[in-house]
Design brief:
CATH architecture of the largest domain in chain A: Sandwich
Number of domains of chain A: 4
Shape of chain B: globular
CATH architecture of the largest domain in chain B: Alpha Horseshoe
Largest sheet of chain A: 7 strands, mixed
Strand content of chain A: 35-45%
Radius of gyration of chain B: 23 Å
CATH class of the largest domain in chain B: Mainly Alpha
Helix content of chain A: 25-40%
Structural class of chain A: alpha+beta
Oligomer: heterodimer
Order of helices and strands of chain B: HHHEHHHHHHEEEEEEE
Distance between the termini of chain B: 46 Å
Number of strands of chain B: 8
Largest sheet of chain B: 5 strands, antiparallel
Structural class of chain B: alpha+beta
Shape of chain A: rod-shaped
Distance between the termini of chain A: 192 Å
Radius of gyration of chain A: 70 Å
Largest interface: A-B, 47 and 63 residues
Number of helices of chain B: 9
CATH topology of the largest domain in chain A: Immunoglobulin-like
Strand order of the largest sheet of chain B: 7-6-5-2-8
């Protein structure tokens, strides 16, 4: 064995050095799987059995090119009955991924060998819908690193069922908000190691929580599938809470692992001798480690909406089984002391999604954002734990306050209905604290200008003051109205009295006026009598009185006010002729003169008597 | 003349009758003043209130009670009594001064709504004198007006008649105006619709219902105007014009 191998190697070296340009039929072939699944990665190889240059690959419009072209060369030497032939295989491979269903043609590639252009054959690839279990599909896609090992061949077919990943779902039709558990399990017949996730599933529309810690992975068991024994291990376990209703898809999980796989037992020649020869343990160890890419199956979850009727106000999306309670550290305190109010939601369900409570505090409380602490434990059916909301509030003003009850509403999965739990109402009694800080916050001293700092109220009134009956006022009292009414009445009485008096006075004047002529005539008649008797004294007195009295009565001039001037005025006022006035005053003067002048008085007596008679009758006429 | 003298006698008699009843309380007031000066404010309040209880009041009495409450740091009570005093004698400078001081000590600072100038002036005029002072002015103006009218009627001197006639007219219109002012003052006094908040903190509601929306918060010592009442709820307005409902137990009418 050893000798043969050495011979071959030595001979090969010799023949290689002899030159490669042997006349030979150049073949340029394309090869690939003819049937692939959607999403499957497969290799397309273009192989030329000569040293070629300028390789032009086709375009792959219907596939996704993962890598390529990757060139590789292999050579072989055959010695048959002393005849030695050397063959060269120059291959260019692409790794493609099928993206959609259908039948697609891969156009030929071209290559130049010895200045001649060769064209490969075209290929038809049929892409089919993936079978339900993804266990079948991984394995074909060998990573480029394995290529040299496998001498440009496509991956070993036998590995496809040796190891695969499968996703399981606890409940494919949950309610919105109900937790479901997705478990990824790896099934393997061969030893595997170094599992590394290349693409974690994304969970659009879900809130997810990993249930497995990084290092705890090996929950291994054995399971027999189709008569084959597999080792099964959980590699990933996630609880998902659907955030919306409808059909949601969970993308497949992709991972790489290193597996020890049985070597393929295939030769290219089909020659039995060489098959035996190469399948010999010297050339072909039964196991080799290969790196494998695995992909799980996608999952479809049909999320049902929560009952639409009777949704309580304040329902925030909590679904599960919960209890809710609150504690307060004190209800009687002083201003600026802190109150610690704690609400705890505990139970099973999407507890971490409960991130706020409908809590309002009186406006005079200084409040801070609540401190939210979660204590979450993964359990077999999902997540259980407590969510604690700690409020720290500081009352700044004294008074009695009420903390309104807080209601927590969730959908109970067991009872299949909405449940509301309320905490008790707390009555808070805040007393005025001794500290000055409370006063500072609203003290008027700060509010106003500095002018009132140190100011004080004015002192009380110490001097006696008058008290009055409560609710009794001077205004509106009877006395007040009397004060107005009595003077008014007095005024009216006075006016009436005055009017009457005036009227009477007017009557007297009228009478006097009417009598004036009569009185004057009487006086004159008397004077005439005295004239006859020659009684001068009496005569002049009568004449004088007749004239003055007449004026007084006629013109309503009091006797005391009588004088030459006042008489003059009165007569002018009455529109008496000036001639008459002059005559009248002359007569008056004459009378006075005759009366008081010494000497002969009798001489003028007749003349004065006639003048007086004349002037009075003249005035009478004038005034008429 | 004789009737007038009789009226005067009657007036004197009435005044003495009123003051005679009250004079007995001067002793109590003196004791209260002494207690205040000694610093036992609570005692002085009790004594002052005894006078009130017997049905007597005065602006000065309320002023003294307000001062005593102020000294006890009971600002809302102080404000209440100052306001009561201010009601009886709006022009009292001491009351207004102390009221200003104590209003700076309370929690709420409310910007009053600006009022139209003529309303402000008229309010200031009405507040110039106490109601009874206004009433006295009314009576004096009326008497003067009548006196001038009498002169007009009686006098024979032309110039005197002219002067007295115009004076009488002017005085009569002044009388009518002061009468109106006094009425204004009287209606303010009688239709009491202001109150002082006594609860440390009140949340004013949008409607007379505990469950209604919280509108704003006022604190003790704040003066509110009562607009309406339903059951034990008052609709109130604060100085800046905001309106809301609160429970009647939280406030005290002035």
């Amino acid at each position: 064995m050893m000798i043969r191998r050495i011979i071959i190697i030595v001979a090969g070296m010799i023949f290689l050095s002899l030159g490669t340009g042997h006349a030979q039929n150049v073949t340029f072939e394309a090869s690939a799987k003819t049937v692939v699944g959607v999403g499957e990665t497969f290799a397309v190889s273009f192989t030329v059995n000569a040293q070629g240059v300028i390789f032009r690959g086709p375009a792959f419009p219907n596939f996704m090119v993962i890598s390529g072209p990757n060139g590789s060369t292999s050579s072989s030497i055959r010695m048959i009955n002393g005849r030695t032939t050397m063959s060269i295989a120059n291959s260019y491979s692409y790794y493609l991924q099928a993206t959609k269903e259908g039948s697609y043609e891969i156009q030929p590639a071209t290559i130049t060998v010895d200045n001649k252009v060769y064209k490969s054959n075209s290929l038809t690839i049929k892409v089919i819908q993936n079978p339900g279990s993804s266990g079948q599909n991984p394995g074909q896609n060998t990573s480029p690193q394995n290529r040299n090992q496998q001498q440009g061949q496509t991956g070993p077919q036998s590995a496809s069922n040796d190891v695969f990943v499968k996703a399981f779902i606890s409940n494919a039709a949950p309610l919105q908000g109900e937790g479901i558990i997705v478990t990824y399990k790896i099934f393997t017949k061969v030893p595997i190691s170094q599992i590394a996730f290349t693409k974690l599933s994304s969970f659009p529309g879900f809130w997810s929580q990993n249930l497995m810690k990084e290092n705890e992975k090996n929950n291994q068991s054995t399971q027999i599938i189709d008569g084959q024994q597999y080792v099964v291990a959980d590699i990933r376990k996630i609880v998902l809470f659907p955030l919306k209703s409808g059909t949601l898809t969970i993308d497949p999980l992709e991972l790489q692992c290193v597996a020890q796989v049985k070597r393929p037992t295939k030769t290219r020649t089909g020659d039995p001798f060489f098959d035996d020869f190469f399948n010999d343990s010297f050339f072909n160890n039964s196991y080799s480690t290969i790196e494998k890419s695995l992909k799980s199956n996608p999952l479809v979850v049909n999320v049902k909406p929560l009952p639409a009727e009777n949704i309580p106000v304040g329902f925030n999306g909590a679904v599960g089984t919960f209890s809710f309670n609150s504690t307060i550290d004190k209800t009687k305190l002083k201003t600026n002391d802190a109150i610690n109010l704690k609400f705890t939601v505990s139970g099973e369900g999407n507890i971490q999604l409960i991130d706020k409570l409908d809590m309002t505090f009186p406006p005079d409380f200084e409040t801070y954002d609540p401190k939210i602490t979660s204590a979450i434990n993964p359990i077999s059916s999902g997540i259980a734990g407590t969510q604690t909301f700690e409020y720290l509030v500081i009352p700044r003003k004294p008074g009695n306050f009420t903390l309104k009850p807080v209601t927590f509403t969730y959908f109970d999965l067991k009872k299949r209905q909405y449940v509301s739990i309320s905490t008790p109402q707390y009555a808070i009694n805040v007393e005025k604290g001794s500290g000055e800080s409370a006063a500072i916050t609203y003290s008027g001293v700060n509010k106003e200008d500095i002018k009132y700092i140190g100011s004080d109220i004015r002192h009380i009134k110490n001097q006696p003051f008058t008290l009055q009956k409560t609710g009794v006022f001077f205004f509106g009292s009877t006395f007040f109205y009397l004060c107005l009414l009595i003077p008014l009445l007095l005024f009216i009485v006075l006016i009436i009295f005055w009017k009457k008096q005036n009227a009477r006075k007017a009557d007297i004047q009228l009478m006097k006026n009417r009598k004036a002529t009569k009185v004057a005539r009487n006086r004159l008649r008397k004077a005439e009598k005295f004239l006859k008797e020659q009684n001068k004294e009496e005569f002049y007195i009568e004449i004088s009185q007749a004239l003055w009295g007449y004026l007084s009565d006629k013109f309503n001039i009091p006797l005391a006010e009588l004088s030459m001037e006042s008489v003059n005025d009165a007569l002018i006022k009455k529109n008496v002729n000036e001639e008459i006035i002059r005559q009248f005053t002359e007569t008056l003067n004459d009378t006075e003169f005759a009366r008081f002048a010494p000497g002969e008085k009798s001489l003028f007596m007749d003349k004065i008597f006639n003048e007086a008679l004349e002037i009075i009758s003249k005035i009478e006429r004038e005034l008429r | 003349m004789r009737t007038q003298r009789r009226l005067l006698l009657f007036l004197v008699f009435l005044v003495t009758l009123i003051s005679a009843g009250a004079s007995g309380y001067q002793v109590i007031i003196d004791r209260a003043n002494k207690a205040y000066s000694d610093g036992s404010y609570a005692n002085s309040i009790d004594l002052y209130k005894e006078v009130l209880k017997n049905g007597y009041e005065s602006a000065e009495l309320y002023y003294n009670i307000g001062n005593a409450y102020y000294k006890l740091n009971d600002y809302s009570s102080a404000i209440l009594y100052y306001e009561r005093g201010n009601r009886l004698d709006p022009g009292n400078e001491d009351i207004n001064f102390n009221l200003k001081i104590v209003n700076n000590k309370i929690a709420d600072k409310i910007e009053p709504l600006p009022e139209l100038f003529y309303k402000r002036w008229y309010d200031a005029l009405v507040s110039l004198f106490s109601l009874d002072t206004w009433a006295k002015i009314v009576v004096i103006l009326f008497l003067l007006s009548i006196f001038m009218a009498s002169i007009y009627f009686i006098s024979r001197i032309l110039i005197l008649r002219k002067i007295s006639f115009w004076l009488s007219i002017i005085l009569f219109f002044s009388f009518l105006f002061t009468m109106l002012t006094a009425f204004q003052s009287y209606s303010r006094l009688k239709n009491q619709h202001e109150a002082i908040v006594f609860s440390p903190t009140i949340t004013v509601k949008s409607s007379p219902d505990e469950k209604s929306i919280d509108l704003f918060v006022i604190h003790e010592g704040t003066k509110v105007s009562i607009i309406d009442q339903i059951g034990n709820w008052y609709e109130i307005r604060i100085a800046n014009g905001s309106v809301g409902w609160l429970q009647s137990s939280t406030i005290e009418k002035i």
